[in-house]
């Protein structure tokens, strides 16, 4: 898979050279000319990617909600307490202030710049359309988290109490915005160059991104407006990302490290372990992506207190576990409890075990998040061909005309996931051949829901969205869910600040969606 590694100086320019300018810029919202528009755009891209990547419990708990990870000592967020740390407030602030407002200011600056000649005019037009696409991606995330949100009246410094727009109406507006970008982006001209942290100014890739974003949004509303979804997807299915094509930010490290590194390594804290929800299912399927997802635990034999010799030792538990023999080249599934014989000590093995979701877990007693994911330079994916192909598998299952069968898209998506995580197409083929994995057209929601969840590891919001739509995979209910109905949340509640600073519009928005509750389903969640 080809990846573009952004020039280090771009991010350094934002975080160091322009620090003083950004401070002045952020205190003078009506005069956003202190910083070049390209830099403001790059800053918005980084803020967006940082929010998507982060596992800081103050701002992004999607990896917990999707039950990829669980907590060790403090279990509030694994039990869906989003109020104590005012998580919705921070999500609102990050997306509106740090992303959308910067995009607006970048647009204003670029609009004010003269474009002399055809090349400059084409480049300027491309920049403005790319800003629209990042804007659409961001608003899409906000709608999928909350439902109705401020949109038409948002980002107006003179209006501190914006009205909330209907969620589906926002979707329609975003479709129009994306269509306009597709119709007018011109790959014959440049755009942001190296200041585009996702594609390095490659306009052709932005066009593919636009089509994949349309596919993503359209399949989301398929149970609400099937005809609209079908029309949109049939017009874009062959124009978006294929597996191996990806919108990502590759962090250079240092002062611009992946937030996962900051949260998991630099903090010196051990707050998270893989959740048993995920680990147990991967053990059941002998899904070798576990070698890329987790750091396995070495099995330790008990010792005879008198002789000091190793003795037969039981690996407790229930269900199954995969024994990973030295080198990772031999995986054997066994039933638990399993008796490891002392005579086998010359053939050491490790295994994966996940922390119990929602409960306190001793960090030392469970598998850990794989080392590469904790590296400062680990890239964060915003949208890619694997995600797109799972959506197209679903489209085919719904009998849309999308060029291939549901099984073909499904198999290609799984293969793309294996290759993304450093495995081979042969590994994927062996996995797909398993009866429990092979595409089941009669139960397509289960097949696609479960396998997309396994593939979207560390992309928690995407996985949670799919779970809400497809009702798969089967997730565990934590011991003390802080939701109004005691179940897994269907949405996040609005920020506490909105209840005081934008009271009338807050209550109107809550009434419009059926109540500002975590149990309230969004318009597209029909099952």
How would you describe the overall organization of this protein?
By secondary structure, this protein is α+β, with helices and mostly antiparallel strands. It has 2 domains: 8-267 and 378-384 and 458-489, Serine Threonine Protein Phosphatase 5, Tetratricopeptide repeat; 272-354, no CATH class. The chain contains 19 helices and 14 strands. α13 (385-397) runs antiparallel to α14. The two termini are 36 Å apart.
Please work out how many helical segments DSSP would assign.
19
Low-pLDDT segments, ≥5 res:
1-30
Strand order, biggest sheet?
A: 7-12-9-10
Largest sheet: 4 strands, antiparallel
Strand content: 5-15%
Compute the separation of the termini in Å. 36 Å
As a whole number of angstroms, the C-alpha radius of gyration is 24 Å
CATH architecture of the largest domain: Alpha Horseshoe
The share of residues in helices is: 40-55%
Please state the average pLDDT score: 93
What's the CATH class of the largest domain, please? Answer: Mainly Alpha
Shape: globular
CATH-assigned fold name of the largest domain: Serine Threonine Protein Phosphatase 5, Tetratricopeptide repeat
Query: Care to count the β-strands?
Result: 14
Count of spatially separate domains: 2
Broad structural category? alpha+beta
Summarize the structure.
With 527 residues, the protein is of the alpha+beta class. It is built from 19 helices and 14 strands. The strands form six sheets. Strands 7-12-9-10 form a four-stranded antiparallel sheet, with helices on one face.
């Amino acid at each position: 898979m080809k990846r573009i590694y952004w020039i280090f100086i771009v991010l350094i320019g934002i975080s160091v050279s322009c620090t003083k300018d950004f401070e002045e810029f952020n205190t003078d919202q009506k005069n956003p000319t202190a910083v070049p528009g390209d830099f403001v755009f790059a800053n918005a891209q980084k803020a967006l990617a940082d929010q998507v990547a982060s596992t800081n419990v103050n701002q992004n708990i999607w990896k917990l909600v999707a039950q990829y990870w669980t907590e060790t000592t403090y279990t509030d967020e694994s039990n869906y307490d989003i109020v104590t740390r005012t998580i919705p407030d921070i999500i609102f602030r990050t997306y509106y202030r740090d992303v959308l407002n910067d995009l607006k200011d970048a647009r204003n600056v670029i609009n004010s710049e003269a474009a002399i000649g055809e090349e400059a005019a084409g480049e300027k037009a491309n920049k403005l359309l790319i800003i629209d696409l990042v804007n659409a991606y961001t608003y899409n995330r906000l709608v999928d988290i909350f439902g109705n949100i401020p949109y038409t009246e948002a980002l107006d410094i003179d209006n501190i109490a914006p009205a909330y727009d209907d969620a589906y109406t926002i979707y329609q507006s975003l479709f129009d915005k994306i269509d306009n970008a597709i119709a007018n982006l011109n790959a014959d001209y440049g755009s942001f160059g190296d200041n585009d942290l996702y594609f390095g100014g490659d306009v052709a890739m932005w066009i593919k991104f636009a089509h994949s974003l349309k596919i993503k949004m359209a399949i989301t509303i398929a149970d609400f407006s099937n005809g609209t979804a079908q029309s949109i997807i049939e017009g874009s299915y062959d124009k978006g990302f294929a597996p191996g094509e990806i919108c990502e930010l590759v962090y250079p490290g240092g002062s611009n490290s992946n937030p996962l590194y900051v949260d998991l390594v630099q903090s010196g804290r051990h707050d998270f372990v893989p959740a048993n929800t995920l680990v147990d299912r991967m053990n059941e399927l002998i899904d070798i992506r576990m070698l890329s997802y987790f750091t396995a635990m070495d099995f330790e034999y008990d010792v005879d207190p008198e002789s000091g010799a190793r003795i037969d030792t039981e690996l407790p538990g229930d269900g199954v576990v995969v024994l990973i023999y030295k080198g990772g080249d031999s995986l054997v599934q066994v039933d638990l409890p399993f008796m490891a014989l002392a005579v086998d000590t010359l053939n050491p093995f490790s295994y994966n075990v996940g922390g119990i979701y929602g409960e306190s877990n001793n960090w030392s007693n469970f598998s850990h998040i794989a080392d590469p994911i904790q590296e400062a330079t680990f890239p964060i994916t915003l949208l890619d061909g694997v995600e797109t192909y799972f959506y197209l598998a679903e489209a085919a299952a719904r009998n849309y005309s999308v060029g291939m069968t549901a099984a073909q898209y499904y198999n290609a998506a799984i293969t793309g996931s294996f290759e993304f995580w450093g495995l081979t197409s042969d590994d994927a083929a062996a996995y797909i051949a398993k009866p429990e994995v092979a595409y089941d057209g009669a139960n397509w929601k289960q097949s696609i829901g479960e396998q997309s969840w396994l593939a979207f590891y560390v992309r928690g919001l995407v996985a949670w969205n799919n779970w809400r739509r497809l009702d798969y995979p089967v997730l565990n209910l934590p011991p003390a869910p802080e939701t109004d109905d005691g179940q897994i949340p269907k949405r996040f509640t609005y920020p506490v600040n909105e209840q005081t600073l934008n009271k009338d519009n807050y209550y109107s928005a809550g009434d419009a969606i059926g109540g500002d509750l975590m149990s309230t389903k969004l318009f597209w969640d029909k099952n």
